[in-house]
Design goal:
With 249 residues, the chain is an alpha/beta fold. 31% of the residues lie in helices and 28% in strands. It is built from seven helices and ten strands. The protein has a six-stranded mixed beta sheet with strand order 6-7-8-3-9-10, sandwiched between helices. Strands 2-1-4-5 form a four-stranded antiparallel beta sheet, with helices on one face.
């Protein structure tokens, strides 16, 4: 536990990931150690090639490290079979991506039902409706992606990530394809989920302005953590106008 009595939901120790590309080996992560605690709202930042995407894949149990350990709620996921890993991902982790990843001919309600089908849950339509209402789309249940704005599509994706009631949401550049108004609305949803429901949220972002809305910022460079800082007074989405990019550097 940390000094506030919160237990870690994710702990990685000396994690490395090496990709072999022909005769060359690329070390995407180089001995990374990190604990993420229940209720954290954390951003992972870094320049292109710093290891952010690899880190997200590891945290989401989408890939296995070359070496090191990864504990999810105290369980070493490296010892799990592929089927067991899929179950863990479906029940404990919700994913939100920059590109929404929605099925083009499927209505919002059925999009959100999909994780429930995979996990064999009942009352799927009711749970999916509740998740969509939670993100402000209770009146868009029958709308297909082409009938929704970008911000609404991302909210469908967030509802899909929420529907199995995961303890952790991993979001990879979730505002990257959105205009500033839609991005603010999406950030408001994530802040509400974190503050009111206690869901642990991990963002991967290149945007310092987005990172300032989270409680903790971890910065990567060359596959290593170079900074891990708490944000004592994170910005509240919608209450502060974004300054010019020059002021964010």
């Amino acid at each position: 536990m940390n000094e506030n009595g919160r237990k870690p939901v994710i702990t990685i120790q000396e994690m490395t990931k090496v990709y072999t590309m022909g005769e060359h080996k690329v070390r995407a992560l180089n001995g990374v150690s990190l604990s993420i605690y229940e209720g954290d709202f954390l951003s992972i930042m870094g320049p292109s090639g710093s290891g952010k995407s690899t880190m997200m894949n590891m945290l989401g149990a989408l890939d296995k490290p070359t070496s090191g350990t990864y504990l999810l709620d105290g369980t070493d996921v490296s010892n799990l079979s592929d089927d067991e890993l899929a179950d863990v991902r479906n029940l404990k982790i919700g994913f939100v991506f920059q590109s929404f990843n929605l099925l083009p001919r499927t209505a919002a309600l059925q999009q959100v039902e999909l994780p429930l089908i995979y996990s064999g849950r009942r009352q799927r339509a009711e749970k999916a409706r509740e998740a969509l209402e939670m993100v402000g789309l209770g009146d868009r249940l029958d709308h297909k992606p082409s009938e929704l704005s970008g911000g609404q599509q991302q909210r469908v994706a967030i509802a899909r990530a929420l529907v199995n009631e995961p303890a952790i949401i991993l979001a990879d550049e979730p505002t990257g394809n959105l205009d500033s108004k839609s991005g603010t609305e999406v950030m408001q949803i994530f802040q509400k989920l974190n503050r009111e429901r206690g869901i642990t949220v991990v963002f991967v972002t290149h945007d310092p302005w987005i990172a300032r809305h989270t409680n903790r910022v971890v910065t990567l460079a060359d596959g290593q953590i170079v900074r891990d800082e708490q944000i004592d007074e994170p910005l509240v989405a919608g209450e502060t106008e974004r300054p010019s990019d020059a002021l964010l550097q």
